[in-house]
Design a protein that fits this description.
By secondary structure, the chain is of the alpha/beta class. The protein has 17 helices and 22 strands. The strands form four sheets. It has a nine-stranded mixed β-sheet with strand order 9-10-8-11-12-13-14-15-16, with helices on both faces. A six-stranded mixed β-sheet has the order 17-18-22-19-20-21, sandwiched between helices. Strands 2-7-6-5-4 form a five-stranded mixed β-sheet. The chain starts with a strand and ends with a helix.
Length: 459
């Protein structure tokens, strides 16, 4: 990063109240504990504390300067550069928007109710075969994380693949305006965030804010198998492409072989009479769709099937996404899908589980699906009914809402126990007899912390 204190102030409409405007800045950080010499500190106000209290700590570690939105004690900080702003979070976002404008880089923005992280990982891997790519790391996909990712752009980057998360209306619009994507991708419309948004219609409106705020010359790619998404994408002024399994999509899956640990499939590209074969290191029909979205963007950016094949083959996927791991007990497999959960993604995981193991050797550990609002009980009961039809060897549910999963599954004869937290569920698992060939699927919202069980049960 190459920018000066004065340029930062100009970018955010702030005032240099202390320090030398020409001083260089090499990066941006929001955590005083992690700041490196030369970086700019952004003190954010949270529910628990205020970053202004840590400005002195940041400077003692070599920070080049900081935003301030109120008066602070500058004793001992006379050489520090300070830029006064009204709102430090907005200043971070404005700085990211300005900084993104300094680069001739293609930005791909990805949102959707589920699948966006896996799609992001596949897409970054595919595109990196031909381009130098910056991609979203971890969960840096919101109003704080996305600006921080943009501020990591360097001159050598040609493409940025950015995940866009949300929980309310207006958030995707904000992220789109900050990042100004040249391509927008929407994976699907599901039940995630029903608690806040109230209906799938409102979720669709929130997700398609991406389309409504793309620059006119932009390209959009959406899941053509999702009727609600199709409806809310009407009127998009740029180039709109559809991907999916149905025959009317521009990019189609023609045939797929989904195995226990990988998937092989054929794709028909627009204007091509033939089909191209691809493979991914994940099972599941939904993951084939995620890979197809990535291939579609690669194709639109001029990549050859050969390069895209290599990209999918070498994909590095975010943890907790249907990873099949060796358990500490010999012959036991752990299916780690603990990263997050909503009704659609849980159903997809259960479909994969049915393919991986006979029911008598399958143990399900299912946590709450959070943020579903008024439909929380009905959606959890629906999952319980599906589990009842699967008839697994055992079901463990964790949290509060997931007790409804347990109730419905128990009514259908599934041996089931409910636990309030992951630790108690883990202790119960430790006392179960796990024969060779047993599979244990863990799936739940991140707040339930099923990943802690995964760590304790894997090598």
């Amino acid at each position: 990063m190459e920018i000066s204190v004065g340029e930062i102030a100009l970018a955010v409409g702030g005032t240099v109240v202390q320090g030398f405007p020409g001083a260089p800045v090499t990066g941006v950080c929001i955590d005083s504990r992690e700041i490196k010499p030369g970086e700019w500190f952004v003190p954010l106000e949270g529910e628990q504390t205020d970053g202004h209290y840590f400005i002195a700590d940041a400077f003692h570690k070599g920070a080049a300067g900081a935003f301030v939105s109120r008066d602070i004690d500058t004793v001992g900080l006379r050489e520090a550069a300070l830029v006064k702003v009204k709102d430090t979070l907005k200043a971070l976002q404005d700085l990211a928007r300005y900084y993104r404008g300094k680069f001739q880089v293609d930005v791909v923005g990805i949102t959707g109710s589920s699948g966006k992280t896996t799609t992001k990982d596949f897409m970054a891997s595919v595109l990196s075969q031909q381009y130098r790519v910056l991609k979203t790391e971890g969960n840096l996909n919101n109003e704080i994380g996305l600006p921080l990712m943009l501020l990591r752009l360097e001159e050598h980057h040609q493409v940025a693949v950015l995940e866009m998360g949300m929980s309310a209306r207006g958030e995707i619009e904000l992220l789109t305006r900050i990042s100004s994507p040249s391509c927008g991708v929407i994976t699907n419309i599901g039940d995630a965030h029903l608690e806040i948004l109230g209906s799938r219609e409102e979720i669709a409106r929130a997700k398609t804010e991406l389309l409504k705020n793309l620059p006119e010359e932009s390209t959009a790619l959406i899941n053509g198998d999702d009727p609600l998404l199709l409806e809310h994408s009407r009127g998009f002024g740029g180039k709109l492409y559809l991907y999916g399994w149905d025959k009317y999509n521009h990019f189609q899956v023609k045939r797929a072989l989904i195995n226990r640990q990988d998937s092989h499939f054929e794709v028909a590209f627009p204007g091509s009479a033939g089909r191209e074969e691809f493979s991914i290191p994940l099972p599941g029909r939904h993951n084939v769709a995620n890979a197809l979205a990535s291939l579609s963007v690669g194709y639109l950016m001029g990549m050859t099937p050969e390069l895209m094949r290599e990209g999918l083959k070498n994909s590095e996927l975010t943890w907790g996404r249907l990873e099949i791991k060796e358990g500490k007990q010999p012959g036991v497999k752990i299916i780690d899908d603990s990263y997050n959960a909503n009704p659609d993604s849980v159903k997809a995981s259960l479909e994969v589980a049915k393919e991986l193991s006979p029911p008598e050797k399958m143990i399900l550990v299912l946590g709450d699906m959070l943020e579903l609002g008024e439909v929380s009980e009905s959606r959890h009961r629906e999952i319980g009914q599906i589990v009842g039809e699967m008839a697994p060897r055992n079901l463990l549910t964790v949290g509060s809402w997931s007790e409804y999963i347990k109730e419905e599954a128990s009514l259908r004869g599934v041996p089931a126990c409910h636990f309030r937290d992951a630790h108690d569920a883990w202790e119960y698992l430790c006392n179960l007899y796990l024969e060779e060939g047993t599979f244990i699927l863990l799936k739940g919202s991140r707040g339930i912390k099923l990943d802690e069980i995964v760590r304790k049960m894997t090598k």
